[in-house]
Write a structure and sequence with these properties.
four-stranded antiparallel beta sheet, 540 residues, alpha/beta
Length: 540
């Protein structure tokens, strides 16, 4: 089994510590996390508070980890962390392996001497602390990161005492903007170690990083080296945050979409693995058929997998993808799990999903190959919506826990049975997910007959529910269920309204942008959550 590579340096005059961990393969757990009765909170990284326009791997992230611990939680579930494009959806990324540079903490770069405080003091990354302004981030964040990258690359060249002195003197004479340089032997020593760590990072990610960097260089006015260093910053900071979370008893649940974007380095690198024409256009794209929620279906537009080619290659690309995921997360939620049983194929160029049809997916062949290569891993199968008998069998055969949503339990348009009394232990239950309305407004906006259904199930009248704290009532119903794992969106615990909704499917604008404030994570809120968690027998 491959082990962590760690760099830790000390000087006799002062202590310089540089720790960069790269996890190639995680050990199997003798006791699987999802088999215990525990609870957690769903909250995207971008929703964290902070002063630079978007949630990041900052001190506020560590404060949230401490909040989770105080609240008696075991899990922090986040959304995909890949770099986003048009629409800002984390489920549409330029690479399934890369991380979003927006999440790099600028304050950490200041502490490391890669940025100067005054370079950030006059920049407003957003007009509101409760909203991410992606347009501003795109214009303002990358020039700042570029300064840090240039200083980082300059540091890597400071290998000798004479070179260090020359650069320091040049800085004093105002001949370069790249500052500060090494001023002590210990610092010079640490720069050499950073170079070794960076080169190790490059070699361990050679299967995707160079092509991703070249791909992004064509899309942005920044060099390939810029994109490589940003990924180094990302992984270094994220691993530090995850290690801290794990040390506090908090496990991270990551999330990956089943598909990748047509405009991605993944498709550019591996065209044979996708259903593409000779000109590079898809022959068919992904989506969902028409139903009670969308009369025209859902047209996602992602290229479909050429599953026969994946099978020929022993599913090596998927194995590599999942191996990477488990170097980042303790548990991985896979979106649209039913696509592994059957996937919906829509002719490329169609304006909606009406002409689509179902095709057979890889089924258990993929998961057997993954387990053989990686060992048994903890995966959550997102099996929501219309679920056929064959999908149910695939989830059962895989052994992965499926998902249950309270908001689906009282929806007359939903064909599945999501009432809590039907849930089983090997499931992960939610009040709602990133795609659902917040609990507070959900109950007010559902059809009158659905409110009556919820009231009847609860043994109360609609009027009684409206007069009481119905949000906590439904949270408690979810927590009290038999499901081993219960995940509650932070918005619901705080009784936020529709302004805090994470995403409205099939609608552009105002999605993926809501942020909390520091005041939201108060001691009283933590105590309330802890009490509810303890009463449901889920205290970590």
């Amino acid at each position: 089994m491959e082990m962590l590579k760690s760099y830790s340096l000390k000087s006799t005059s002062e202590t310089v510590v540089l720790e960069v961990d790269f996890l190639c393969e995680e050990k199997d757990m003798s006791s699987f996390l999802l088999e215990r009765r525990r609870a957690g909170i769903l909250m995207p990284l971008f929703s964290l508070p902070g002063k630079y326009g978007i949630g990041s791997f900052s001190k506020e992230a560590r404060e949230f980890v401490r909040f989770l611990k105080e609240a008696g939680q075991s899990y922090w579930q986040i959304l995909p962390m890949g770099p986003t494009g048009y629409g800002d959806s984390p489920y549409q990324s330029f690479s399934t392996f890369a991380g979003n540079p927006y999440f790099i903490d600028l304050s950490t770069l200041v502490e490391e001497g890669l940025l100067l405080k005054e370079e950030l003091s006059d920049i407003s990354f957003s007009d509101s602390e409760e909203r991410v302004d992606y347009g501003k981030l795109y214009k303002l964040r990358f020039p700042v990161l570029d300064k840090a990258v240039k200083r980082f690359l300059a540091r890597l060249e400071a290998e000798t005492e004479s070179e260090r002195k020359d650069k320091a003197e040049a800085e004093m004479e105002g001949k370069t903007e790249l500052k500060p340089f090494a001023k002590t032997d210990a610092e010079c020593f640490s720069f050499k170690a950073e170079k070794e760590a960076y080169l190790t990072f490059l070699s361990e990610n050679v299967h995707w990083l160079p092509s991703y960097a070249a791909f992004m260089e064509k899309k942005m006015p920044y060099s390939a080296d810029f994109h490589k260093v940003c990924q180094y910053f990302f992984i270094k900071q994220w691993k530090s945050l995850k290690d801290y979370a794990n040390s506090e008893g908090i496990q991270i649940i990551g999330d990956i979409p089943i598909y990748v974007s047509l405009d991605s380095s993944d498709v550019l690198d591996h065209p044979a693995l996708f259903q593409l024409k000779e000109n590079g256009e898809p022959s068919a794209v992904a989506g969902c058929p028409p139903d009670a929620f969308a009369e025209n279906g859902q047209l996602w537009g992602n290229p479909l997998y050429a599953w026969e080619k994946h099978e020929e290659e022993g599913y090596s690309w998927w194995i590599s993808r999942m191996k990477h995921c488990f170097s980042l997360y303790d548990i991985v939620r896979v979106d649209h799990f039913r696509g592994f049983d059957e996937y919906f194929s829509i002719p490329y160029g169609d304006e909606n999903a009406k002409r689509g049809h179902w095709e057979a997916g890889p089924g258990m062949k993929l998961f057997k190959a993954m387990e053989q290569a990686l060992g048994k891993k903890e995966v959550i199968a997102e099996d929501l919506g219309y679920v056929t008998d064959s999908v149910k069998k695939l989830v059962s055969d895989s052994g992965f826990p499926g998902m249950k949503l309270l908001e689906f339990a009282f929806d007359s348009r939903e064909s599945g049975d999501y009432r809590p009394n039907t849930w089983t232990k090997n499931t992960v239950c939610y009040t709602g997910t990133h795609d659902n309305q917040v609990l507070k407004d959900w109950f007010l906006e559902i059809l009158p007959e659905d409110r009556e259904m919820a009231a009847e199930y609860s043994g109360k009248s609609v009027e009684e529910l409206l007069k009481m704290d119905y949000v906590d009532f439904f949270i408690k119903m979810t927590l009290d269920s038999v499901s081993n794992t219960a995940m509650i969106p932070m918005q619901d615990y705080l009784h936020k309204g529709k302004e805090a909704r994470i995403n409205t499917p099939s609608k552009l604008g105002n999605n993926w942008s809501y942020r909390f404030t520091k005041e939201d994570f108060s001691k009283s809120v933590a105590e309330k959550i802890r009490k509810m968690t303890e009463e449901s027998g889920r205290l970590s």
